[in-house]
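ping. complex inputs:
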Amino acid sequence: MNPFYQRAQFILGAAALSQCPPDCGHEVAFAGRSNVGKSSALNALTHQRSLARVSKTPGRTQQINFFALDQDRRLVDLPGYGFANVPVSVKRQWGELLEHYFSRRDSLRGVVVLMDIRHPMTDLDEKMLAWCAQAKLPVHILLTKADKLTRNHAQQAMQQVQKLLAERMADWSEHKAWNLESVTMSLFSALKQQGITEIQTQLDVWLQAPGRP
Ligand code: GDP
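pong. complex structure:
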């Protein structure tokens, strides 16, 4: 158990860039389709039962929710995407908020993009990766619900995503300095508590976590 991540505490939810906490220190954002397992992953990696419950509270689901680890470091839960039956105006608002956040937030050090291992790289996931490329932000893809596949099939799914990424890279190559090395990946299961150390190790690097060797 990593006590650093266990300290995470909700600070605030922002519906506009102006409502975000001061843009200093380091933060890492978590993005993914609704139902991908983002709340479960945040709870697992912070060793808390219901940290991310706040992000499911009506009124907060379309907000950027900030969690403090210490004075200089934060985890950020971005609104889940891909809801059915969401009005176009809300989708547009969501897009603008995220695009502004990605391009203008200096303290943002990296983005964890969660994808269900059974349905990775949807159109919206690719859009998210394109924004990261544009903002030259490093990405860690977390393939969630890995317990739903056998170990072999999970490995194959990861290789498949790697292959797709390599193919798509050409579309993003205009964003120089964002390439396959900007993207890391690991398997994750909140249910089996699998992959927690791997994601924490990546967060340590991005957040320059204290105590990192
Ligand atoms: P969110 O909408 O992205 O925050 O997703 P949740 O964390 O609320 O999870 C959505 C659904 O997926 C819930 O029914 C969870 O129980 C389930 N789920 C989340 N993580 C896992 C996992 O690691 N394995 C399995 N099998 N189910 C999971």
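The radius of gyration is 16 Å.
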